[in-house]
UniProtKB/TrEMBL annotation:
Top-level enzyme category: transferase
Entry-linked PANTHER family: GLYCOSYLTRANSFERASE, UDP-N-ACETYLGLUCOSAMINE--N-ACETYLMURAMYL-(PENTAPEPTIDE) PYROPHOSPHORYL-UNDECAPRENOL N-ACETYLGLUCOSAMINE TRANSFERASE 1
Annotated organism of origin: Flavobacterium palustre
Function, in words: Cell wall formation. Catalyzes the transfer of a GlcNAc subunit on undecaprenyl-pyrophosphoryl-MurNAc-pentapeptide (lipid intermediate I) to form undecaprenyl-pyrophosphoryl-MurNAc-(pentapeptide)GlcNAc (lipid intermediate II).
Gene that specifies this protein: murG
Name of the protein described by the UniProt record: UDP-N-acetylglucosamine--N-acetylmuramyl-(pentapeptide) pyrophosphoryl-undecaprenol N-acetylglucosamine transferase
Length: 362
């Protein structure tokens, strides 16, 4: 049996890194003696997260273009040339069978160089509105795995496969973990449990909202697990109490989803895919400061199918308390949202993406 080699690249945020790691893990379970190498951006979080997952990583000197005139933009051409040369060197030395990109700056030069050297490439697009890197790479890519329908205006139709986003496999069956989860977090099973998620780095606006509404939420016999992000933990840890658990980061995501009755979340692509599998009532508060406002588009794809509630940041002061209270008092609405969002889940995504990679090496 041939000894396969895979290079994976994705980073900048957890939304690009975790899918790449999930794909690597599935490839490893099929080809136990395969070799893996990750390529990331030198100063981004993948340089910590990938080694923690047990894989080697090399960094490129690359960053995205800022939307205004900055020194960083002036450096961009230099960084791009440097990253293309380094990518060429990495590919020539490692000799991969396939190169896989899950988005983020570093995947651009790496996959571009793989295409030039005639190595098969696969890109995985998490969002309903693709980023610039993947749009550029799609012309030469062999396969494009997408998580949303109707992306023909961005990508060549014949190369697209609707797979969904890779998610943690331990989320597939959380129904049976509720009692264990409530005990693990020392929660009161007779109170409703609200889970607040701001993404891997936290979300300032969601944190400000919860701080402002805290008394009101607690008055409705609710307990809160509040993931505020490591950037904000020092500021918000003072709210820890019997009914509020403020944490920087959550390790046991399967447990926290199993315990939750209602979830408030950002609408990053990975979060949205996870929440479809989890199947709980969700209020999405998309980040407005992301490229092409793609979080709002991700959330709208769910809301249009009556699977969640969407509140823009600009609506929070006027509408949050009314919307939240109405949802809490309406078990029928909670049930309907849960059923509808679950319909949109694509739990076999990682396996299907790896099936496509296997086709490229055969």
């Amino acid at each position: 049996m041939k000894h396969y080699k895979f290079i994976l690249s994705g980073g900048g945020t957890g939304g690009h890194i975790y899918p790449a790691i999930a794909i690597a893990n599935e490839l490893k379970s099929r080809f136990p003696d395969a070799e893996f190498l990750f390529v990331g951006a030198e100063d981004k979080m993948e340089m910590q997260k990938v080694p923690q997952a047990g894989y080697a990583i090399k960094g490129l000197w690359i960053a995205g273009l800022q939307r205004k005139l900055t020194l960083q933009n002036a450096m961009f051409p230099l960084k791009l040339v440097s990253s293309l040369w380094k990518s060429r060197k990495i590919i020539k030395e490692f000799k991969p069978d396939v190169v896989i990109g899950t988005g983020g700056f570093a995947s651009g030069p790496l996959l571009q160089m793989a295409n030039m050297l005639g190595i098969p490439t696969l890109i995985q697009e998490q969002n309903s509105f693709p980023g610039i890197t993947n749009k550029l790479l799609s012309k030469k890519a062999n396969a494009i795995c997408v998580a949303y329908e109707n992306l023909e205006r961005f990508f060549p139709k014949g190369k697209m496969i609707l797979t969904g986003n890779p998610v943690r496999q331990d989320l597939i069956d959380i129904q049976n973990k509720r009692a264990e989860a409530i005990a693990y977090f020392k929660l009161d099973a007779n109170k409703k449990i609200l889970l607040v998620l701001g993404g891997s780095l936290g979300a300032r606006r969601i944190n400000q909202l919860i701080e402002k509404e805290l008394e009101n939420i607690l008055a409705q016999n609710v307990q809160i697990i509040w993931q505020c992000g490591k950037l904000y933990f020092e500021e918000y840890k003072k709210y820890n109490s019997d009914n509020v658990q403020v944490v920087a980061f959550i390790e046991k995501m399967d447990f926290v989803y199993a315990a939750a009755d209602v979830i408030i979340s950002r609408a990053g692509a990975s979060s949205v895919s996870e929440l479809c599998i989890v199947g709980k009532p969700v209020i999405f508060i998309p980040s407005p400061n992301v490229a092409e406002d793609h979080q709002t588009k991700n959330a709208k794809a769910i809301v249009d199918k009556k699977g969640a509630i969407l509140l823009k940041e600009s609506q929070l002061d006027a509408e949050f308390s009314l919307v939240f209270e109405a949802l809490l008092k309406d078990p029928e609405k909670q049930k309907q949202l849960s059923e509808n969002i679950k319909e949109l889940a694509l739990p076999e995504a990682t396996k299907q993406i790896v099936d496509e990679i296997v086709k490229l090496i055969k």
